[in-house]
Amino acid sequence: MTDACPLCGDTQATLFHTLQHGVYSGRQYWLCPTCWLVYVPRALQLSEAAEAAFYQTHENNPDDPGYRHFLSRAATPLLERLKRPSRGLDFGCGPAPTLSKMLIEQGHACAEYDYYFAHQPQLLEQQYDFITCTEVIEHVSRPAQLLATWQRCLQPGGLLVVMTQLWISQQRFSQWNYRNDPTHIAFYHANTMVWIAQQWQLDICYQQRDVVIFQRKID
């Protein structure tokens, strides 16, 4: 028995994979049968201090063309769907915000929030035309709470962009480098994204590889 699923609360998760080698040998990953989330139990997650220290090793540069190209996989389909000007929030912007700058360059306003590097809780009390979350949700230990926050912050008809690598099969997961990052604690499947849309009154309006764009339903 492990923790209840942090996304849907199901208590019937089964052991999906265990790391056999390396510094984090013995680390477990559990599969929820309801929402298809694969997650690491809280007891095996890093402390906040260790997590913050690990993030400090990232070397993303907003002027790096390669990094911008990587983020364009989220920015391009979002920009195709935005009316100018729109006001958004880059959630989990990190120590070197880049996607927000790319969107501002295209005539949109974009605030920046990050729990470790730009902790401004008041930004989560406002509403936005769009929210972006690129390579962040896999780090979040309480995704249900986060999704509830996003839903509250999105205007009806607003867009939520989630960029994260999706797991495909148990066999591929066992050879997947993405699982080895010690700060990656939640892994999403295409079926998880469908479940999220159903639970949080969202429609999936774009899905390609590791990018999903949700639209909040208009009441």
What's the layout of helices and strands?
Blueprint: E1 14-18, E2 28-31, E3 38-39, H1 48-55, H2 65-79, E4 87-91, H3 99-105, E5 109-113, E6 128-134, H4 143-153, E7 154-163, H5 170-173, E8 186-187, H6 190-199, E9 202-208, E10 211-216
Parallel strand pairs: 4-5, 4-6, 6-7
Antiparallel strand pairs: 1-2, 2-3, 3-8, 7-10, 9-10
CATH topology, by name, is Rossmann fold
* CATH H-level superfamily: Vaccinia Virus protein VP39
Task: Give the name of the CATH architecture.
Answer: 3-Layer(aba) Sandwich
pLDDT averaged over residues: 94
How widely separated are the two ends?
40 Å
Number of strands: 10
Helix content: 25-40%
Coarse structural class? alpha/beta
Q: Regarding quaternary structure, how should these chains be classified?
A: single chain
H/E series, N to C?
Answer: EEEHHEHEEHEHEHEE
Strand order of the main beta sheet, please? 5-4-6-7-10-9
Tally of helical segments: 6
Low-confidence stretches: none
Shape descriptor reads globular
**Beta-strand percent range:** 15-25%
What is the CATH class name? Answer: Alpha Beta
Q: If you compute it from the alpha carbons, what radius of gyration comes out, rounded to the nearest whole angstrom?
A: 17 Å
The profile of the biggest β sheet is: 6 strands, mixed
Total domain units: 1
